[in-house]
Amino acid sequence: MTYSNSVLIGNWSEERLKNEYEFKLFLRKRDRRELLLQRSRTLFSNLLMERPLAISGTFVLFGFNVQVVASDMPAKSSPESGKPQYGLALSSLVSERQVDYMQNINDGCLMTLSPITTPCCRNTFVILSAADETLHGEKMNYGDEFLLRAENYGDPKAAPLYVRYTPEGTPAPADRMPIRLSAIKDSNCRWSTIPQLLCDRLEGIGSPVKTSAKLIVKNCVADKSLCVMNQSWMQTFFGPECGVTCRNYIDIHRRHTAENIFTLVSDVETKTKD
């Protein structure tokens, strides 16, 4: 089958106009910063912006930034070579499906445990007393109920977000991750700490929490311990990260295992020593 010159010219003109339209659409999206590459760069810039922790001394103080770090867990599910790195920081996550409409933390963001332990916007939280949020500089004791508030540095006027655990009403899959950021501040956002060793808990309740101490973080409503889902690793924008939930891992001696052991890092000196 042969085509006349007019048909060939018509196809060429149509293809040229299509390319011109797509190029203009690309320029318009670029000027509006709507390209996926630009959105991804904005996301990285907002969430990985370093936030130096204010030095608060030896003890955890209300009103200061803290990191919740699982210091005894390997940073990778299967270290390839060399000495494995330890430490997973509780972090907020924006998934690849949310990049088109979200370039910062928001209500409903999933919480994970990330090998990135450098203090940044996604893994630092302001620790507040559940009894009086205006307290600043007061020592936090074992047994005190507290809130973990995530700061949205990209939009200071945004509603405050809190780390919230949602208990399951019915039996749920083992890999369910129910800890998210929430704008609803209710009893599910309340957390408390107890000493790691069983023999220290009776005398330890009411004593100040040290920044370098290994401890157990419990949700006040579910009465379950914050734990590392070491078998649930996922690939994210920020690399492989581990799931986090509330579950008690106890051995035959009634001691919590490494999945439940965390530290509250609230000053640069302690972070450097670890």
From TrEMBL:
Pfam families: CFAP161. Signal peptide: none annotated. It comes from the Eukaryota. InterPro entries: CF161. One of its GO terms (cellular component) is motile cilium. GO terms for biological process: cilium assembly. This is Cilia- and flagella-associated protein 161. It comes from Manduca sexta (Tobacco hawkmoth).
